[in-house]
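Let's practice the habit of predicting before peeking. Look at the sequence and jot down your guess about where helices and strands might fall. Then scroll down.
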Amino acid sequence: MRISELLRMVFINIMSNKSKCALTSLGIVVGSATIVLVIGIGQGGKLDVAEQFKNLNAGAVEVSVGQSADTMMENMMGGAPFGGMPNGSQNRPGGQGSPSGMGSQRQSSGGQSRGGRSGGMGFQGGRSSAVKLTEDDVSDIISVVPNIESISIVADGTAAVDGGELEEETEFTVAGVMSDYCDITNLSVQYGSFFTEDDDLDRSKVCVLGYKTAQNIFGAAYLAVGEFISVEGKNYEVIGVLSSMGSVLSGISPDEAVYIPYSTAAKYIFGSNISPKITAVAGDVSYVEDVVADIQTVLTQNYPNAVFTVTDAGSEMQAAQRSADTLQTLLIAVASIVFIVGGIGIMNVLFVTVKERTAEIGLLKALGSKRTVILMEFLLEAAMIALFGGVIGVGAGYALIPVVELTGTRVVAVSAAGILSLGFALITGTVFGFYPAYKASRLTPIEALNEN
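Done guessing? Here is the structure:
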């Protein structure tokens, strides 16, 4: 029997049982649609991870400080004062353990001025820790730790901002950073410029706005440069506006932040409530582990009783990526179960079909059709039913993408997902249709005609 005749018979049999074929393929439809959505959600998750970390250098290392053992004990005893020491410089062990003997020569810099304003009114930094990272720690790390390309200290919180088109004071994220912060985080300035090292040394009242912040305050980002805003009651000149980034860096959204020189923020905004972090960039990704270990050593020597958390962007990116991959794998496993259920449905229906069509099978055998012809006929029927369900399912999957996005989940339409779904459908139909087809091909003409 020619293949064209075989396909014609398969088509006639399917069309004569439209409702049965439609119900049989329902599981395949659901499975195919699920595969399309699952892969789309997985790709969306990966893009979210990529965008979240797109401005972080893979060699970036972030250091934050927790409560020291002494502070935790004092808090448990109820004797820990709020605020502690402004910058932690008085908490150092008088030069012992400081790298290269630097601690014995270092003055308690900034201890008076940075605590001058008892934590800006709008700053919500929570309870102050007795140990605080300082610019002196940055100097220690630079002088002792090799393979560091750049390093900066950062402090952030919320503060009351007024000016421009704002009708009243509004809370914005305010970040005190050093002049090289843009290089470390790959931020770019769209209008104006970023502040300089001199601005930080002079505690200049200048600021750089995130793109959305500039729009919210002045109506348009390009109008912000040269204007003034009030932050916690003090006027700051806007000297730059960042390009729109659409990402989050160390818990800060650059688009929605106000950046000011670190020394200015320490004195006028955060005061004794400041809780800074140190961000460093290794000269090469292969040096990250050594840099992390060396930084921990330096800070442990400076603050023997403190607890530090040192994380690197590469590990965070890998962890986030692994989470996205794991989620996608789990969802694909669920979709595979749906396919299996659909394949079992096809197998059951084909068993019934074989029983109903024993006369046809007997007649074909009597006319000289070989077992392979009967096997191919039923296998093609199973594959066609599965393919039909796959096509409908793929179409339904792509159609449902806008609906899923309404829930806030990012879904990316991937053409490969449709191809994979159709492949799964064909494989499922073929695998689960083989045994009924094999049973049909093994019937003898006399046995088949007698059963009828």
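How did you do? The chain has 16 helices and ten strands.
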